[in-house]
Amino acid sequence: MTTLTAAGGREADADAGPIAGRRAPSWRRPRADPYWLAGAFFVLYTAVSVTRHLRWESRSWDLGIFEQAVRSYAGLQLPVSDLKGRDFALLGDHFSPVTALIAPFYRMFPTPVTLLVAQAALFALAVVPVTRAAAHLLGRSAGAAIGAAYGLSWGVQEAVDFDFHEIAFAVPLIAFSLEALLKGRHRAALWWALPLLLVKEDLGLTAAAIAAVVALRARGGPDPRMVRRAVGFAVVAALACLVTIAVLIPAFNSGGGYDYWTKVGEGDGPLRTAFTDADQKLRTLLWVLVPTTGLLALRSPLLLVLLPTLGWRFVSHDPHYWGTDWHYSAVLMPVTALALADAVARTRADGPRPWLRAYAERLPLGVLAAALALSTTLPVAGLTHAATYRQGEAAEAGERVLSVIPDGAEVAANVRPIAHLTARCRVFWIGNTDGPAPEYIAYWDPARTAEELTQYAHRIHPDGVYDVVAQEAGFWVLRMR
Asked: How many other CB atoms are there within 10 angstroms of residue 242's CB atom?
């Protein structure tokens, strides 16, 4: 018995069991592949981020900020992050009310690990639509290869390694939206893109880009009104982005503005900045397109969805946005994976030059091989080391030192201790001095001496006199007399 694949080829029916006439168990059928892959990557991502946190190697800053926000939501309050400033309303920084969805789980498990597990689940969830859409277009094996390549992609791994960020919600939404688009379900594609407006303010432009691709794909289709609907959606999404930045965020911001305009408006201006360090930006663009698609995705209009994110990153004068580090490229990975699937299907159907068709046929396995090869230098490689699963002396020392701070205390901290205090204390960034001096200071710096730290504490808080009450392995706790 055979089935016709979406690409027009024939393959053995995967439901056929070892004995003719018997159906394979449901967990062995093709439709189960995306869920098995998603489950495996959920375990993988959780292991990477949670073991890192337990070793006290978290970068801690964003994780602490978002834990404070989710903790506020769990207490049925608007999100506040004291790390950004005393009683700072986080909706006045980035507009990300979607993080409230984590609050019920955080209320049951009030720990930063809850946020890390939630992020792992969201990134892994995107494996399902990526694999399903690719299998729909290319067949089971190619679909599984592209799904696995997405799961191992460098952009997702860097984001998992970056503790927590709100863009974790955007990744599956984009993937489900593009899956619906590739299956011709244009209205569903728009509905999946709509919640992006609640993830982060710039993602309204990504939603608009998805709508533009829907309009392109719907031309000449059975529903002539879909093009107008998609264009209307794109306009509304772009306007919503503008209103969020110009009205909503300033309404919550104590300064009455949008703080991130300075990352575009200062310096030489966005147009000239777009050509600053062009070699680095070109390298980033090649990283986005070459190992993930072999450049074949240039044949797919889905790549238009990359433009808003790459655009704001490259016109900003902040060099942190230009490279491949941290979480900034995660939202691009489901786009490149599904653009590859679309491009391979188009290459099969168009009947171009034989060499290009042969190249396209081998690309799903090729991008998986590339992802596996790159993973030897990416965060998942750490899971092969025994030390990854041991807490280590530094983490044990940190726990002992910070244990002298009582629950509910006000603490000023630098990066490393932050995420190990935010669940039980009111934590401020040690550089912020807007308000009374905190009772405790938690600090990590193996090079400091007790005298240097007490002098530093008095310099930033002249009204307070601090004494060292605990120190070990570079961790320090000072208490106000």
From this structure: 13
Structural tokens at position 181: 């688009």
Kindly report the average pLDDT of the chain as a whole number.
91
- Residues 149, 126 contacting (CB under 8 angstroms): no
CA dihedral over 154, 158, 161, 164, signed as positive or negative: negative
Cα-based angle 154, 160, 163 (whole degrees, multiple of 5): 140
Alpha carbon of residue 33 to chain centroid = 23
**pLDDT tier for residue 435 given thresholds of 50, 70 and 90:** confident
Torsion of CA 456, 458, 462, 464, to 10 degrees: 140
Please state the rounded mean pLDDT for residues 63-78: 96
pLDDT for residue 16 is more than 50: no
Residue 216 to residue 161: CA distance in whole angstroms: 36
Q: How many Å apart are CA 25 and CA 4, to the nearest integer?
A: 21
- Give me the residue label for tokens 């044949």: 299
Listed residue (328, 61, 407, 344) closest to 168, CA to CA: 328
Give dist(CA 314, CA 301) in Å, integer: 21
pTM to 2 decimals? 0.91
Query: What pLDDT digit, counting tens, does each position of 212-270 carry?
Result: 999 999 987 788 899 999 999 999 999 999 999 999 999 999 888 998 887 775 556 66
pLDDT at position 268, please?
Answer: 62
Q: Over the chain, what HEC string results?
A: CEEECCCCCEEECCCECCCCCCECCHHHCHHHHHHHHHHHHHHHHHHHHHHHHHCCCCCCHHHHHHHHHHHHHHCCCCCECCCCCCCCEHHHCCCCHHHHHHHHHHHHCCCHHHHHHHHHHHHHHCHHHHHHHHHHHHCHHHHHHHHHHHHCCHHHHHHHCCCCCHHHCHHHHHHHHHHHHHCCCHHHHHHHHHHHHHCCCCHHHHHHHHHHHHHHHHCCCCCCHHHHHHHHHHHHHHHHHHHHHHHHHHHHCCCCCCHHHHHHHCCCCHHHHCCCCHHHHHHHHHHHHHHHHCCHHHHCHHHHHHHHHHHHHHHCCCHHHCCCCCCCCHHHHHHHHHHHHHHHHHHHHHCCCHHHHHHHHHHHHHHHHHHHHHHHHCHHHHHHCHHHHCCCHHHHHHHHHHCCCCCCCEEEECHHHHCCCCCCCEEEECCCCCCCCCCEEEEECCCCCHHHHHHHHHHHCCCCCEEEEEEECCEEEEEEC
- CA-based nearest residue to 56, from 388, 475, 392, 395: 395
